Every structure is written in structure tokens, then in C-alpha cells.
Amino acid sequence: LQAETPQVVTQAAYTFTDANIGAAAADRYVIAVIHAMSSVNGRTLNSASIGGSAATIHANANKSVLASNTTIAAISGLLVPAGTTATVVATFSDTMLICYCRIYTLRRALSNTPTATKTTTVDPATSATIADTIDIPARGALLAASTATTATGSWSMAGVTLDVTESNGNIPAGAGHSNRLAAETGRAYSATISSSLPTMAMAAAAWH
Predict the structure, then answer these.
(1) Which residues of the chain have pLDDT under 50?
(2) Whole-number Å distance between alpha carbons of 92 and 38
(3) pLDDT value at residue 198
(4) Per-residue pLDDT, 179
(5) Which residue, 208, 204, 109, 206, is CA-closest to 147?
(6) pLDDT recorded at residue 28
(7) Which of 203, 200, 39 shows the shortest CA–CA distance to 128?
(8) What does the chain look like in DSSP terms, one character per residue?
(9) What is the pTM (predicted TM-score) of this model?
(10) CB within 8 Å of 63: residues ≥ 6 apart
């Protein structure tokens, strides 16, 4: 995992220059996890690029609250065999207030296309936990990312190992993964914020 410095600035496209993507390898699949928030509803993540090439957005969780805000958690990826750094760009339909980028790398996968993806959202004032289930292949990997809007505290996660939890401007963003998992139908995973009952979005993807 490489956690890039969050960008707390109002704009529609966020550029994370020379993100660390690890050692070069012919089968290296670079995964860019994007967290973002706007104080206006109806905003969307339109595209992501890694090293100047379009990435595939595998899971794009978006919770829009009427006349209030947009909360986004997304997982995108691209095969990047060469180099040790790459610039990541996340482009939205309109201006956002903050954007986080976390980089993971996947190697020796049978396919770079996830075997399953999930997007989950929670309305404000409903729960401090966002949860779902996903099918895992034998020797599989699971990645989950969560974003909360107008919340304090930090994330804890179940079903994956929490890698990072960070909050800027009361917008906590968390991500976690687990690998070498046994085949499992309906593996449960969740993220819980330590305080408040915010708007939440969570994206997840499993690989073989």
C-alpha cells in the first residue's frame, strides 16, 4: 500500500504526481483506490488514469444525499509493467472538496478482472457501520475501501485487514485488504466509524 497525500482543494480533477507503484514486473496490476466528497449532491467519478492511460473503474460506490453531499469510494486498476512511479488522475463530473488516493499492486493473478465487485452505501443518521458480503475464489484476494462524509473519528474494518485510516476536514477514508483467502461464498466484510452516524460509501473487489 502507498497512501498519497490527500488533496483538500475544490476542483474537478485531482492529480497525484509520481505515485509509488513499486517494483516493475510484467504482470504488475496497479490499483488506485479513490475516496472523494463534495458538499453538493449528484457528483460522480467519471474516469481514472494511471501513468497517462485510462484505468478501468471496477467498483464505484456513490451516495448522493439530496441538497446535501456526495460521498464516493472507488476501485480502479491498470496493467503497468514498467516503471516505479506513475501519475494518477481522478476526474469527476464537477468540483469536489477533497480526494484521497491509495495505491495497491496485484501480481500473479489469474486475471486482472475481479471475480466479483460490490458497492454499498448508507444513509446519514442510520448506522456507524457499513457492511456487505462478496464471493471469494480459492487463494483469492479482497480489497475494500470506505469513505464517510461529515464524520469524526477513524475506521475499523472486519473481513479485511485495515491498512490505512485517515481523516481530513471530517472526511474519514479507510482501506484494507486480505489475500491468500480460501474459497468462500458470501464472505462478510464491514467498516465502522468510531463516532457519529455519517453518510457512507464502500467499494470492494475480489481477485483470483
Answers:
(1) none
(2) 10
(3) 87
(4) 95
(5) 204
(6) 97
(7) 200
(8) -EEPPPB-S-EEEEEEEEEE--S--TT-EEEEEEEEEESSTT--EEEEEETTEEPEEEEEEEEEETTTEEEEEEEEEEE--S-SEEEEEEEEEEEESEEEEEEEEE-S-S-SS-SEEEEEEE-TTT-SEEEEEEEE-TTEEEEEEEEEES--S-EEEESSEEEEEEEETTEEEEEEEEEEEPPEEEEEEEEEESSS--EEEEEEEEE-
(9) 0.96
(10) 70, 71, 72, 121, 122, 123, 149, 199, 200, 201
Pick left, alpha or beta for residue 170 (phi over 0 → left; psi -120 to 50 → alpha; otherwise beta): left
Residue length, the chain? 208
Are the beta carbons of 72 and 61 closer than 8 angstroms?
yes
Residues 182-197 have pLDDT tens digits of 999 999 999 999 878 8
Task: Convert the pLDDT of each residue in 71-100 to its tens digit.
Answer: 999 999 999 999 999 999 999 999 999 999
Looking up cell 471530517 gives 170
